[in-house]
Amino acid sequence: YLLTLINLFSSIVLGSQANFFSNESIVKYEKVLRDDVARLAQLEFQNPSVLFKQFFGQEKGDVARYLFKHIDRFTFYNGYDDKVAAFQPPSTIIIFSGYFESNLSMRLSALVHEAAHYHSDHIKCPSPYIFRMTPGPNTKSDLIQALPSLDGKDCDKDLYGAYGIQYVFLAAMAYNCSNCSDSEKKNSKDLM
């Protein structure tokens, strides 16, 4: 199964901004991205939340399938060191140089987040808004008024937006991943 996903990934067009990256960098970045997608395909979750099952399913490889259901192209752009990735309609993820400075949990959750933009975009955060959510395997959408970005500048209108889906993914990595390292679990908790 993993080989099928890797072959599928190989068939996806990997674009690049050649003026901005050396060929050596592009080869290195493609390898990191391929390794990240392979890691998504390998993740296994025990007793994931209802929302996780709704968004992704519960079988090994379902998160990678979710990604490929929504994305058919990756492009690298050397710039915006403070950014990790962005969605470009209709189905492209732009990978910024900040992606390669991020830990694995951030990179994987960023891919999931950007794929979720296939269905929705962010809204301006209500002012004032309240956000407090108890992390854990039984995350419920009714605990959220508006889910903010890490910098608090924009929000999803509910848990079904890109931040919500990313949060559910991070919670599953932190609490339900049976083959995640302690480092992956800790980094996922820290991002929540």
How would you spell out the order of helices and strands?
Answer: HEHHHEEEHEEEHH
Structural class: alpha/beta
Cα gyration radius (Å): 16 Å
Strand content: 5-15%
**Overall helicity:** 40-55%
- Sum up the overall morphology in one term: globular
Span between termini: 30 Å
Please, what is the oligomeric state? single chain
DSSP helical segment count: 7
Give the strand tally.
7
Low-confidence stretches: 132-146
Which keywords apply here?
192 residues; alpha/beta; four-stranded mixed β-sheet; three-stranded antiparallel β-sheet; 7 helices; 7 strands
Describe this structure in words.
- By secondary structure, the protein is of the alpha/beta class.
- The protein has seven helices and seven strands, in the order αβαααβββαβββαα.
- A four-stranded mixed β-sheet has the order 1-2-4-3, with helices on one face. A three-stranded antiparallel β-sheet has the order 5-7-6.
- Helix 5 packs antiparallel against helix 6 and helix 6 packs antiparallel against helix 7.
- The protein is globular.
- Residues 132-146 have low confidence and may be disordered.
Write the layout of secondary structure elements.
Blueprint (H helix, E strand, L loop, with lengths): L1 H10 L1 E4 L6 H20 L7 H6 L6 H9 L2 E5 L7 E4 L3 E5 L7 H13 L6 E2 L22 E2 L5 E3 L5 H14 L6 H10 L1
Parallel strand pairs: 1-2, 2-4
Antiparallel strand pairs: 3-4, 5-7, 6-7
